[in-house]
């Protein structure tokens, strides 16, 4: 199975980039892993609702998702999982011969309704709101933790 993260916007702060690079390298010890960024939409044609930006970003995100990939959308209203449950979810996907999981992190407006509806799973890291860059670091760390659990490594302790 391959893992992919598609994020809206760039990692601007060096410390967020360094953390993501560190965890991405660790994840690659277990599974193929790639990352892609799509530009944040700068204009909103939805009268302050973000609808225009959401559609622009969703179109760019969907161009990055390979056919047959299972979409996992990060969404504050999504399902919350413990690290152990995330590990079990990843193991179940591997056993089901899922070829690719694509995790998607939205921009300032979140993710559009159509994109959320097309997701196989809506995953919440927390009911709290975090900067997108920090959410990205947290996702990478949790994926690494989940894979460490699967392999029985002491990192999880």
Compute the number of strand runs. Answer: 5
* Average pLDDT, all residues: 92
Please identify which CATH superfamily we are dealing with: SPOUT methyltransferase, trefoil knot domain
| Overall geometry | globular
Tell me the number of helical segments per DSSP (H or I, 4 or more residues long): 5
Order of secondary-structure elements: EHEHEHEHEH
Biggest sheet strand line-up:
2-1-4-3-5
Model regions low in confidence, pLDDT < 50 over at least 5 residues: none
Category by helix and strand content: alpha/beta
Radius of gyration over C-alpha positions, nearest whole angstrom: 15 Å
Which CATH C-level class is it?
Alpha Beta
Q: Span between N and C termini?
A: 25 Å
Strand fraction equals 15-25%
Q: Fraction of residues in helices? A: 40-55%
- Whole-number tally of structural domains: 1
CATH level-3 fold name: Alpha/beta knot
List the helices and strands and how they pair.
Blueprint: E1 2-8, H1 14-27, E2 33-38, H2 51-64, E3 70-80, H3 83-95, E4 100-105, H4 113-118, E5 121-124, H5 132-151
Parallel strand pairs: 1-2, 1-4, 3-4, 3-5
Give the tags.
single chain; Alpha/beta knot; alpha/beta; 5 strands; 5-stranded parallel β-sheet; globular; 157 residues; 22% strand
Describe the structure.
By secondary structure, this protein is α/β, with parallel strands linked by helices. It has one domain: Alpha/beta knot, CATH 3.40.1280. 43% of the residues lie in helices and 22% in strands. The chain is built from 5 helices and 5 strands, in the order βαβαβαβαβα. A 5-stranded parallel β-sheet has the order 2-1-4-3-5. The two termini are 25 Å apart. The mean pLDDT is 92.
């Amino acid at each position: 199975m391959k893992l992919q993260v598609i994020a809206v916007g760039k990692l601007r702060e060096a410390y967020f980039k360094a953390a993501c690079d560190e965890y991405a390298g660790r994840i690659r010890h277990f599974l193929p892993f790639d990352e892609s960024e799509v530009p944040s939409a700068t204009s909103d044609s939805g009268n302050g609702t973000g609808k225009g930006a959401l559609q622009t970003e969703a179109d760019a995100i969907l161009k990055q998702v390979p056919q047959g990939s299972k979409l996992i959308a990060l969404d504050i209203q999504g399902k919350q999982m413990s690290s152990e449950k995330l590990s079990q979810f990843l193991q179940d996907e591997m056993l089901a011969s899922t070829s690719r999981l694509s995790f998607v992190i939205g921009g300032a407006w979140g993710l559009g309704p159509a994109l959320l509806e097309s997701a196989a799973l809506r995953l919440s890291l927390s009911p709290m709101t975090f900067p997108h860059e920090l959410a990205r670091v947290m996702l990478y760390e949790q994926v690494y933790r989940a894979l460490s659990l699967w392999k029985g490594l002491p990192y999880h302790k």
